[in-house]
Protein backbone atom coordinates (compact mmCIF):
# COMPACT_ATOMS: atom_id res chain seq x y z
CA UNK A 1 0.00 0.00 0.00
CA UNK A 2 1.46 3.35 -0.95
CA UNK A 3 -0.41 5.60 1.47
CA UNK A 4 -3.80 7.19 1.88
CA UNK A 5 -3.17 10.19 -0.38
CA UNK A 6 -2.41 10.06 -4.07
CA UNK A 7 0.56 11.67 -5.75
CA UNK A 8 -1.84 14.08 -7.46
CA UNK A 9 -3.12 15.23 -4.04
CA UNK A 10 0.37 16.02 -2.73
CA UNK A 11 2.40 19.07 -3.58
CA UNK A 12 6.09 18.99 -4.30
CA UNK A 13 8.26 21.08 -2.00
CA UNK A 14 9.37 24.39 -3.50
CA UNK A 15 12.80 23.70 -4.97
CA UNK A 16 14.98 26.35 -6.58
CA UNK A 17 16.14 25.27 -10.05
CA UNK A 18 19.68 24.00 -10.61
CA UNK A 19 20.56 26.87 -12.93
CA UNK A 20 24.09 28.05 -13.58
CA UNK A 21 27.34 26.50 -12.41
CA UNK A 22 27.86 24.48 -9.23
CA UNK A 23 31.30 24.75 -7.68
CA UNK A 24 32.58 21.71 -5.81
CA UNK A 25 35.45 22.49 -3.45
CA UNK A 26 37.33 19.69 -1.74
CA UNK A 27 39.57 20.18 1.26
CA UNK A 28 42.19 17.69 0.09
CA UNK A 29 43.46 17.03 -3.44
CA UNK A 30 44.80 13.52 -2.94
CA UNK A 31 43.70 10.12 -4.17
CA UNK A 32 39.96 10.49 -3.53
CA UNK A 33 39.54 14.03 -4.84
CA UNK A 34 41.63 13.55 -7.99
CA UNK A 35 39.90 10.24 -8.79
CA UNK A 36 36.54 11.98 -8.39
CA UNK A 37 37.48 14.97 -10.55
CA UNK A 38 39.15 12.84 -13.23
CA UNK A 39 36.16 10.52 -13.32
CA UNK A 40 33.64 13.31 -13.81
CA UNK A 41 35.70 14.83 -16.62
CA UNK A 42 36.08 11.41 -18.22
CA UNK A 43 32.29 10.93 -18.13
CA UNK A 44 31.74 14.43 -19.55
CA UNK A 45 34.02 13.56 -22.50
CA UNK A 46 32.23 10.26 -23.10
CA UNK A 47 35.30 8.23 -22.12
CA UNK A 48 33.69 6.31 -19.25
CA UNK A 49 30.43 5.67 -17.41
CA UNK A 50 29.59 6.99 -13.90
CA UNK A 51 29.56 3.52 -12.34
CA UNK A 52 28.83 3.58 -8.61
CA UNK A 53 26.83 6.82 -8.68
CA UNK A 54 23.18 6.70 -7.65
CA UNK A 55 22.55 10.21 -8.96
CA UNK A 56 23.69 9.19 -12.44
CA UNK A 57 22.80 5.51 -12.83
CA UNK A 58 20.08 4.52 -10.34
CA UNK A 59 16.35 4.52 -10.97
CA UNK A 60 13.58 5.31 -8.48
CA UNK A 61 10.19 3.59 -8.43
CA UNK A 62 7.18 5.92 -8.36
CA UNK A 63 3.68 4.76 -7.46
CA UNK A 64 2.53 1.14 -7.71
CA UNK A 65 4.58 -1.60 -9.30
CA UNK A 66 1.88 -1.87 -11.96
CA UNK A 67 2.40 1.80 -12.90
CA UNK A 68 5.78 0.97 -14.42
CA UNK A 69 7.22 4.36 -13.49
CA UNK A 70 10.92 4.05 -12.69
CA UNK A 71 12.82 7.06 -14.04
CA UNK A 72 16.48 7.66 -13.46
CA UNK A 73 16.97 9.71 -10.30
CA UNK A 74 18.71 12.42 -12.33
CA UNK A 75 15.64 12.67 -14.58
CA UNK A 76 13.24 12.78 -11.62
CA UNK A 77 15.06 15.21 -9.33
CA UNK A 78 16.39 18.62 -10.47
CA UNK A 79 20.07 17.94 -9.85
CA UNK A 80 22.96 19.95 -11.22
CA UNK A 81 24.14 18.67 -14.60
CA UNK A 82 27.67 17.24 -14.80
CA UNK A 83 28.51 19.80 -17.48
CA UNK A 84 27.78 22.58 -14.98
CA UNK A 85 30.28 21.39 -12.34
CA UNK A 86 33.44 23.35 -11.59
CA UNK A 87 36.19 21.99 -9.35
CA UNK A 88 38.61 23.48 -6.85
CA UNK A 89 40.54 22.30 -3.81
CA UNK A 90 42.85 23.09 -0.94
CA UNK A 91 45.85 20.93 -0.10
CA UNK A 92 49.06 21.37 1.92
CA UNK A 93 50.96 19.80 -0.98
CA UNK A 94 51.10 22.20 -3.98
CA UNK A 95 50.77 19.58 -6.76
CA UNK A 96 48.13 20.25 -9.42
CA UNK A 97 45.40 17.63 -9.89
CA UNK A 98 47.23 15.82 -12.69
CA UNK A 99 50.48 15.54 -10.72
CA UNK A 100 48.60 14.55 -7.56
CA UNK A 101 46.67 11.88 -9.46
CA UNK A 102 49.89 10.48 -10.94
CA UNK A 103 51.45 10.30 -7.47
CA UNK A 104 48.34 8.72 -5.96
CA UNK A 105 48.63 5.88 -8.47
CA UNK A 106 44.91 5.10 -8.54
CA UNK A 107 44.26 5.77 -12.23
CA UNK A 108 46.33 4.45 -15.11
CA UNK A 109 47.94 6.62 -17.77
CA UNK A 110 45.33 5.53 -20.32
CA UNK A 111 42.73 7.33 -18.17
CA UNK A 112 44.84 10.31 -17.09
CA UNK A 113 46.61 11.36 -20.28
CA UNK A 114 43.44 12.14 -22.30
CA UNK A 115 42.37 14.62 -19.60
CA UNK A 116 45.81 15.91 -18.57
CA UNK A 117 45.02 19.34 -20.03
CA UNK A 118 41.99 19.68 -17.76
CA UNK A 119 43.53 18.23 -14.57
CA UNK A 120 46.66 20.38 -14.89
CA UNK A 121 44.56 23.54 -14.57
CA UNK A 122 43.32 22.61 -11.09
CA UNK A 123 45.87 23.89 -8.61
CA UNK A 124 45.21 23.68 -4.87
CA UNK A 125 44.73 26.78 -2.78
CA UNK A 126 46.79 27.10 0.38
CA UNK A 127 45.36 24.80 3.04
CA UNK A 128 44.39 25.51 6.62
CA UNK A 129 46.61 22.76 7.96
CA UNK A 130 48.60 21.87 11.06
CA UNK A 131 50.83 18.84 11.21
CA UNK A 132 49.82 18.01 14.79
CA UNK A 133 46.31 17.11 13.60
CA UNK A 134 47.58 14.84 10.78
CA UNK A 135 51.06 13.90 11.91
CA UNK A 136 52.14 11.83 8.90
CA UNK A 137 51.71 14.65 6.38
CA UNK A 138 53.94 17.66 5.90
CA UNK A 139 53.33 20.37 3.36
CA UNK A 140 54.44 23.85 2.36
CA UNK A 141 51.23 25.05 0.71
CA UNK A 142 49.65 26.21 3.96
CA UNK A 143 48.04 29.31 5.39
CA UNK A 144 49.57 31.24 8.27
CA UNK A 145 48.09 33.34 11.04
CA UNK A 146 45.64 32.60 13.83
CA UNK A 147 42.85 30.10 13.37
CA UNK A 148 40.40 32.95 12.96
CA UNK A 149 42.60 34.48 10.27
CA UNK A 150 42.88 31.14 8.47
CA UNK A 151 39.11 30.66 8.64
CA UNK A 152 38.50 34.13 7.23
CA UNK A 153 41.03 33.38 4.48
CA UNK A 154 39.05 30.24 3.61
CA UNK A 155 35.91 32.34 3.32
CA UNK A 156 37.73 34.66 0.93
CA UNK A 157 38.92 31.63 -1.08
CA UNK A 158 35.31 30.51 -1.49
CA UNK A 159 34.19 33.97 -2.58
CA UNK A 160 37.10 34.30 -5.03
CA UNK A 161 36.52 30.82 -6.49
CA UNK A 162 32.83 31.53 -6.94
CA UNK A 163 33.49 34.84 -8.69
CA UNK A 164 36.37 33.66 -10.87
CA UNK A 165 34.43 30.65 -12.13
CA UNK A 166 31.02 32.28 -12.38
CA UNK A 167 29.44 29.81 -9.95
CA UNK A 168 25.88 30.29 -8.75
CA UNK A 169 26.37 27.90 -5.84
CA UNK A 170 29.22 26.11 -4.05
CA UNK A 171 29.38 22.95 -1.94
CA UNK A 172 32.30 21.58 0.08
CA UNK A 173 33.08 17.87 0.40
CA UNK A 174 35.86 16.93 2.82
CA UNK A 175 38.26 14.57 1.00
CA UNK A 176 41.32 15.17 3.16
CA UNK A 177 42.99 12.87 5.67
CA UNK A 178 41.63 11.73 9.03
CA UNK A 179 42.56 14.07 11.86
CA UNK A 180 43.55 12.98 15.36
CA UNK A 181 40.79 12.03 17.78
CA UNK A 182 39.16 15.02 19.47
CA UNK A 183 36.32 14.97 21.97
CA UNK A 184 33.70 17.69 21.94
CA UNK A 185 34.27 20.20 24.72
CA UNK A 186 33.08 23.60 25.97
CA UNK A 187 34.82 25.26 23.02
CA UNK A 188 32.25 23.59 20.73
CA UNK A 189 29.15 24.18 22.84
CA UNK A 190 27.98 27.53 21.43
CA UNK A 191 28.72 29.71 18.42
CA UNK A 192 30.20 32.36 20.70
CA UNK A 193 32.46 29.85 22.47
CA UNK A 194 33.56 28.36 19.15
CA UNK A 195 34.47 31.73 17.66
CA UNK A 196 36.29 32.77 20.83
CA UNK A 197 38.26 29.52 20.61
CA UNK A 198 39.14 30.34 16.99
CA UNK A 199 40.34 33.78 18.09
CA UNK A 200 42.53 32.13 20.73
CA UNK A 201 43.77 29.45 18.27
CA UNK A 202 42.56 26.84 20.75
CA UNK A 203 43.80 23.29 20.04
CA UNK A 204 40.22 22.02 20.28
CA UNK A 205 39.48 23.75 16.97
CA UNK A 206 40.81 21.41 14.29
CA UNK A 207 41.45 22.55 10.70
CA UNK A 208 38.41 20.64 9.43
CA UNK A 209 36.24 22.80 11.71
CA UNK A 210 37.68 25.93 10.12
CA UNK A 211 36.60 24.73 6.68
CA UNK A 212 33.15 23.85 8.00
CA UNK A 213 32.74 27.23 9.70
CA UNK A 214 33.86 29.03 6.55
CA UNK A 215 31.49 26.99 4.38
CA UNK A 216 28.51 27.65 6.64
CA UNK A 217 29.28 31.37 6.87
CA UNK A 218 29.39 31.51 3.06
CA UNK A 219 26.12 29.56 2.72
CA UNK A 220 27.77 26.46 1.26
CA UNK A 221 26.59 22.93 2.05
CA UNK A 222 29.27 20.80 3.74
CA UNK A 223 29.70 17.01 3.56
CA UNK A 224 32.28 15.38 5.84
CA UNK A 225 33.93 12.36 4.23
CA UNK A 226 36.23 11.60 7.18
CA UNK A 227 35.49 10.55 10.78
CA UNK A 228 36.82 13.82 12.22
CA UNK A 229 34.88 15.74 14.83
CA UNK A 230 33.85 18.57 12.52
CA UNK A 231 30.28 19.71 11.97
CA UNK A 232 28.87 17.32 14.57
CA UNK A 233 29.27 19.83 17.41
CA UNK A 234 26.49 22.06 18.84
CA UNK A 235 28.09 25.33 17.71
CA UNK A 236 28.32 24.44 14.04
CA UNK A 237 24.95 22.69 14.00
CA UNK A 238 23.34 25.83 15.42
CA UNK A 239 25.19 28.03 12.95
CA UNK A 240 24.10 25.85 10.01
CA UNK A 241 20.47 26.05 11.06
CA UNK A 242 20.75 29.82 11.43
CA UNK A 243 22.33 30.20 7.98
CA UNK A 244 20.09 27.63 6.24
CA UNK A 245 23.02 25.35 5.33
CA UNK A 246 22.76 21.59 4.72
CA UNK A 247 25.27 19.36 6.54
CA UNK A 248 25.99 15.64 6.32
CA UNK A 249 28.57 13.19 7.58
CA UNK A 250 30.59 11.42 8.49
CA UNK A 251 33.23 9.10 7.03
CA UNK A 252 32.62 7.74 3.52
CA UNK A 253 31.28 4.19 3.64
CA UNK A 254 33.32 2.45 0.96
CA UNK A 255 35.01 -0.86 1.81
CA UNK A 256 34.89 -3.11 4.83
CA UNK A 257 32.26 -1.14 6.73
CA UNK A 258 30.06 -1.04 3.64
CA UNK A 259 30.20 -4.85 3.59
CA UNK A 260 29.30 -4.94 7.29
CA UNK A 261 26.18 -2.87 6.67
CA UNK A 262 25.15 -5.46 4.07
CA UNK A 263 25.99 -8.67 5.96
CA UNK A 264 24.98 -7.71 9.52
CA UNK A 265 21.38 -6.77 8.61
CA UNK A 266 21.05 -10.14 6.85
CA UNK A 267 22.21 -12.00 9.95
CA UNK A 268 19.87 -10.03 12.17
CA UNK A 269 16.94 -10.52 9.79
CA UNK A 270 17.38 -14.28 10.18
CA UNK A 271 17.96 -14.01 13.95
CA UNK A 272 21.39 -15.64 13.73
CA UNK A 273 23.75 -14.98 16.62
CA UNK A 274 27.21 -13.43 16.56
CA UNK A 275 30.11 -14.51 18.74
CA UNK A 276 32.72 -12.29 17.13
CA UNK A 277 33.76 -10.28 14.08
CA UNK A 278 37.45 -9.76 13.38
CA UNK A 279 38.38 -7.27 10.66
CA UNK A 280 41.79 -6.35 9.35
CA UNK A 281 42.93 -4.24 6.40
CA UNK A 282 46.10 -3.46 4.52
CA UNK A 283 46.29 -0.13 2.70
CA UNK A 284 49.24 1.71 1.18
CA UNK A 285 47.99 5.11 0.08
CA UNK A 286 48.23 8.43 1.94
CA UNK A 287 45.17 7.48 3.97
CA UNK A 288 46.91 4.30 5.11
CA UNK A 289 50.00 6.27 6.08
CA UNK A 290 47.92 8.74 8.09
CA UNK A 291 46.03 5.94 9.85
CA UNK A 292 49.37 4.37 10.83
CA UNK A 293 49.46 7.12 13.45
CA UNK A 294 47.59 5.84 16.56
CA UNK A 295 45.92 9.20 17.19
CA UNK A 296 44.39 9.30 13.71
CA UNK A 297 43.51 5.60 13.83
CA UNK A 298 41.59 6.22 17.07
CA UNK A 299 39.28 8.57 15.15
CA UNK A 300 38.71 5.96 12.42
CA UNK A 301 38.30 3.11 14.92
CA UNK A 302 35.51 4.93 16.74
CA UNK A 303 33.70 5.31 13.43
CA UNK A 304 34.12 1.68 12.33
CA UNK A 305 33.31 0.06 15.67
CA UNK A 306 29.92 1.73 16.13
CA UNK A 307 28.31 0.10 13.10
CA UNK A 308 27.72 -3.47 14.33
CA UNK A 309 26.46 -2.53 17.78
CA UNK A 310 23.89 -0.16 16.32
CA UNK A 311 22.65 -2.65 13.70
CA UNK A 312 22.53 -5.71 15.95
CA UNK A 313 21.15 -4.00 19.10
CA UNK A 314 22.59 -6.41 21.71
CA UNK A 315 20.60 -4.68 24.44
CA UNK A 316 17.40 -5.83 22.70
CA UNK A 317 18.72 -9.23 21.62
CA UNK A 318 21.04 -10.35 24.42
CA UNK A 319 20.69 -14.05 23.59
CA UNK A 320 22.09 -13.38 20.13
CA UNK A 321 24.53 -10.50 20.46
CA UNK A 322 25.40 -9.72 24.07
CA UNK A 323 29.16 -9.47 24.55
CA UNK A 324 30.14 -10.23 20.93
CA UNK A 325 33.78 -9.50 20.17
CA UNK A 326 34.50 -6.85 17.53
CA UNK A 327 38.10 -6.14 16.56
CA UNK A 328 39.23 -3.75 13.80
CA UNK A 329 42.79 -3.38 12.53
CA UNK A 330 44.25 -1.18 9.75
CA UNK A 331 47.82 -1.78 8.66
CA UNK A 332 49.89 0.53 6.47
CA UNK A 333 51.47 -1.54 3.70
CA UNK A 334 52.99 0.68 0.98
CA UNK A 335 53.19 -1.92 -1.84
CA UNK A 336 49.38 -2.02 -2.06
CA UNK A 337 48.93 1.68 -2.75
CA UNK A 338 45.24 2.49 -3.11
CA UNK A 339 44.28 -1.17 -3.59
CA UNK A 340 43.01 -1.94 -0.11
CA UNK A 341 42.50 -5.54 0.98
CA UNK A 342 40.21 -6.42 3.84
CA UNK A 343 39.75 -9.73 5.63
CA UNK A 344 36.79 -10.50 7.85
CA UNK A 345 36.33 -13.55 10.04
CA UNK A 346 32.75 -13.74 11.30
CA UNK A 347 31.85 -16.31 13.94
CA UNK A 348 28.09 -16.77 13.83
CA UNK A 349 25.77 -18.93 15.90
CA UNK A 350 22.82 -20.92 14.57
CA UNK A 351 20.08 -23.31 15.66
CA UNK A 352 20.74 -24.98 19.02
CA UNK A 353 23.90 -22.90 19.44
CA UNK A 354 25.93 -24.53 16.69
CA UNK A 355 28.84 -22.35 15.48
CA UNK A 356 29.43 -21.40 11.84
CA UNK A 357 31.81 -19.03 10.09
CA UNK A 358 31.73 -16.54 7.26
CA UNK A 359 35.00 -15.47 5.64
CA UNK A 360 35.22 -12.35 3.48
CA UNK A 361 38.27 -11.32 1.46
CA UNK A 362 37.54 -7.98 -0.21
CA UNK A 363 40.16 -6.70 -2.66
CA UNK A 364 38.91 -3.22 -3.38
CA UNK A 365 40.17 0.08 -4.70
CA UNK A 366 39.53 2.63 -2.01
CA UNK A 367 39.33 5.79 -4.09
CA UNK A 368 37.42 4.08 -6.92
CA UNK A 369 34.68 3.29 -4.39
CA UNK A 370 34.81 6.74 -2.77
CA UNK A 371 34.78 8.91 -5.91
CA UNK A 372 31.12 8.34 -6.88
CA UNK A 373 30.12 9.04 -3.27
CA UNK A 374 31.75 12.46 -3.52
CA UNK A 375 29.75 13.19 -6.66
CA UNK A 376 26.44 12.04 -5.15
CA UNK A 377 26.97 13.94 -1.92
CA UNK A 378 27.85 17.13 -3.76
CA UNK A 379 24.76 16.91 -5.98
CA UNK A 380 22.36 15.81 -3.24
CA UNK A 381 23.69 18.42 -0.78
CA UNK A 382 23.16 21.14 -3.35
CA UNK A 383 19.66 19.78 -4.06
CA UNK A 384 18.80 19.69 -0.35
CA UNK A 385 19.81 23.29 0.11
CA UNK A 386 17.82 24.41 -2.93
CA UNK A 387 14.84 22.56 -1.40
CA UNK A 388 15.16 24.64 1.78
CA UNK A 389 16.53 21.80 3.90
CA UNK A 390 19.06 22.83 6.53
CA UNK A 391 21.17 21.31 9.28
CA UNK A 392 21.69 17.54 9.46
CA UNK A 393 20.65 15.64 6.33
CA UNK A 394 20.08 12.22 7.87
CA UNK A 395 18.62 10.93 4.59
CA UNK A 396 22.21 10.90 3.27
CA UNK A 397 23.25 8.32 5.91
CA UNK A 398 23.49 5.82 3.03
CA UNK A 399 26.93 7.23 2.24
CA UNK A 400 28.49 7.28 5.72
CA UNK A 401 30.00 4.98 8.33
CA UNK A 402 28.96 7.26 11.21
CA UNK A 403 25.77 9.02 10.14
CA UNK A 404 24.98 12.31 11.83
CA UNK A 405 21.60 12.44 13.57
CA UNK A 406 19.65 14.75 15.84
CA UNK A 407 20.82 14.75 19.47
CA UNK A 408 19.70 11.62 21.31
CA UNK A 409 18.67 9.82 18.13
CA UNK A 410 20.25 6.45 17.33
CA UNK A 411 21.75 6.42 13.82
CA UNK A 412 20.43 3.93 11.29
CA UNK A 413 23.24 1.79 9.84
CA UNK A 414 21.27 -0.81 7.87
CA UNK A 415 22.23 -0.05 4.24
CA UNK A 416 18.84 -1.07 2.87
CA UNK A 417 16.86 1.02 5.34
CA UNK A 418 19.20 3.91 4.52
CA UNK A 419 18.51 3.44 0.80
CA UNK A 420 14.75 3.41 1.42
CA UNK A 421 15.08 6.58 3.50
CA UNK A 422 17.06 8.31 0.76
CA UNK A 423 14.59 7.44 -1.99
CA UNK A 424 11.54 8.21 0.14
CA UNK A 425 13.01 11.62 0.91
CA UNK A 426 13.32 12.29 -2.81
CA UNK A 427 9.73 11.11 -3.37
CA UNK A 428 8.50 13.33 -0.54
CA UNK A 429 10.27 16.43 -1.82
CA UNK A 430 8.97 15.85 -5.34
CA UNK A 431 5.35 15.32 -4.24
CA UNK A 432 5.21 11.56 -4.80
CA UNK A 433 3.83 8.91 -2.45
CA UNK A 434 6.15 7.03 -0.11
CA UNK A 435 6.83 3.39 -0.95
CA UNK A 436 6.11 1.08 2.01
CA UNK A 437 6.25 -2.27 0.11
CA UNK A 438 3.09 -3.47 1.89
CA UNK A 439 1.38 -4.28 -1.41
CA UNK A 440 -1.96 -5.53 -0.06
CA UNK A 441 -3.85 -3.71 -2.81
CA UNK A 442 -2.54 -6.24 -5.33
CA UNK A 443 -4.37 -9.06 -3.49
CA UNK A 444 -7.64 -7.38 -2.50
Distance between the termini: 11 Å
Number of strands: 10
- Class from helix and strand fractions: alpha/beta
Radius of gyration: 22 Å
Please give a structural write-up.
- By secondary structure, the chain is α/β, with parallel strands linked by helices.
- It folds into two domains: 21-252 and 368-429, Rossmann fold; 256-363, Dihydrodipicolinate Reductase, domain 2 (2-Layer Sandwich), CATH 3.30.360.10.
- The protein is 37% helix and 15% strand.
- It contains 16 helices and ten strands.
- It has helices spanning 31-44, 54-57, 73-76, 97-104, 109-112, 116-119, 147-165, 191-199, 207-217, 234-243, 256-269, 286-291, 294-312, 318-321, 366-386, 415-429, and strands at residues 21-27, 85-90, 167-174, 221-224, 246-249, 273-283, 325-332, 341-349, 355-363, 391-392.
- The strands form two sheets. The protein has a six-stranded parallel sheet with strand order 2-1-3-4-5-10, with helices on both faces. The chain has a four-stranded mixed sheet with strand order 7-6-8-9.
- Strand 8 and strand 9 (355-363) form a beta hairpin.
- Helix 8 (191-199) crosses helix 10 (234-243) and helix 11 (256-269) runs parallel beside helix 13.
- It is globular and about 65 Å long.
- The model is unreliable at 1-9 (pLDDT under 50).
Amino acid sequence: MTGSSTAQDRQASPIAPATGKLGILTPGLGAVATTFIAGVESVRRGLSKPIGSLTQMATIRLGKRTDNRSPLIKDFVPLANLDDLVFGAWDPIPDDAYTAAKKAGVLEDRDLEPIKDFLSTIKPMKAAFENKYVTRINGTNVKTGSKREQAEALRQDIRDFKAQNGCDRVVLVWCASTEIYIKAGPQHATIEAFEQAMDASDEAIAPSMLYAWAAIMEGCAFANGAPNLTTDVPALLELANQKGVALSGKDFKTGQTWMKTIIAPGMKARMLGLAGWYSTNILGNRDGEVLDDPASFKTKEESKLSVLHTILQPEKYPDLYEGFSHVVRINYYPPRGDNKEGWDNIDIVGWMGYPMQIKVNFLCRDSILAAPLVLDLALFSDFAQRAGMKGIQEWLSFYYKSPMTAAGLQPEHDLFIQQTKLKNTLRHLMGEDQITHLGLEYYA
